[in-house]
Amino acid sequence: MATYVLLVKEEETEDFVVYKFGPDKDRLGKLRLDKISGEPEELEKVPDTNTNFYYFSAASKLIRILKQGDGVFPDTTSYAS
What we know:
Layout: E1 4-12, E2 16-24, E3 27-34, E4 40-44, H1 53-68, E5 76-80
Antiparallel strand pairs: 1-2, 1-5, 2-3, 3-4
């Protein structure tokens, strides 16, 4: 079974980036990634879910961008497996 997580950038500063994330544009949670420490923090849960799957998938995608990328966070991206 394929999985998909949409990520939409909401805010970015020198120290952190905030993304909305979830299975589609109508059901989104929110997370913040500290660019200095690499630590993610869930700010809002995805509505109507009782699992952390979307949060962990979104956080891992953003950590990968931070560590492997050139520090440029796209306006929109996704996690798929």
